[in-house]
Specification:
With 268 residues, the protein is mainly α. The protein folds into two domains: 54 residues, no CATH class; 175 residues, Cytochrome p450-Terp, domain 2, CATH 1.10.230.10. The strands form two sheets. Strands 3-4-5 form a three-stranded antiparallel sheet. The chain has a two-stranded antiparallel sheet with strand order 1-2. The longest helix has 20 residues.
């Protein structure tokens, strides 16, 4: 009997499109573990650092030196940003269930949406779309302006509640991309988009860290779909740091108490 991939169905009707029942990531055997076609203990361990290994897992290829450098840079840039709601949620979860470290991490990650974690994935889509226009013959400035018009009032990658007039993380990423000569068409479009946003709004808006993350990753050959993985992995490291501190110096219930004090109850 052949054991196949389970197919979810309702009343005999298949839900969704069935894919090929194959994975190219990893397989464990009695005497070894193979990852992306490489022997984990015989080849990968001791040779690749975690950033390189993450790239291998994510893309199936080992990174070039510039891909490794900038992937590492971006992970560092986005890992920690203070007592954000994601960190608060994780700390309060751990306070309520001290044995559930994984649950507290999950609580923080579940809150990592575009408002808190940034819009790098949306920025990547915007830049990729604009680059298609450039490839078809449009001027980068015109392509950026069209992308801004399509986005309307909510252009991803612009505005920040703390960093004004510039986001220092964004500026440093662009600076290093220029210094190491990896600035390509997507970084050019990111700069053109900044100008188009300023013109559309009648004033400059802060380009936040999400836009350079997307631009540099695209210029280094990462697929747009992979961009969001970087902030998620990076913020996981930050969450673990907060939770390690919470275990030693708990403030989760203090934050919960302050939240209750801040909210006034009104009878309906």
């Amino acid at each position: 009997m052949t054991v196949g991939r389970p197919v979810h169905s309702v009343a005999g009707v298949q839900i969704g499109k069935a894919g090929i029942p194959v994975s190219h990531i990893s397989q464990a055997y009695p005497d070894r573990v193979e990852v992306r076609g490489r022997d984990l203990t015989g080849d990968v361990m001791g040779r690749l650092g975690f950033t390189e290994y993450f790239h291998l897992l994510l893309t199936g290829e080992e990174p070039t030196e510039e891909q490794r450098y900038f992937l590492d840079l971006l992970l560092v840039a986005i890992a920690e940003h203070g007592m954000m709601p994601t960190n608060v949620a994780a700390r309060m979860t751990l306070a309520a269930d001290p044995e559930s470290l994984q649950g507290a991490v999950a609580a923080g990650i579940l809150g990592c949406g575009p408002v808190i974690l940034g819009t790098a994935e949306h920025c990547a889509r915007l830049l990729a779309s604009a680059q298609q226009r450039v490839a078809a013959g449009a001027d980068p400035a015109a392509a950026a302006a069209e992308a801004v018009r399509e986005a309307g009032d909510r252009v991803p990658g612009f505005g920040h509640p703390v960093h004004k007039p510039v986001d220092p993380r964004a500026e440093r990423i662009l600076e290093l991309a220029y210094e190491r000569e990896v600035s390509g068409p997507h970084v050019l479009l990111a700069r053109a988009t900044r100008d188009a946003v300023a013109e559309a709004h009648g004033k400059p808006l802060t380009m936040n860290v999400s836009m350079p993350i997307a631009a540099v990753m695209l210029d280094l050959g990462f697929p747009a779909a992979a961009v969001k993985a970087v902030p998620i992995l990076a913020r996981t490291a930050g969450l673990l740091a907060h939770l390690a501190e919470e275990q030693q110096e708990p403030i989760g219930f203090l934050m919960a108490g302050k939240a209750e004090e801040a909210i006034e109850y009104e009878r309906p």
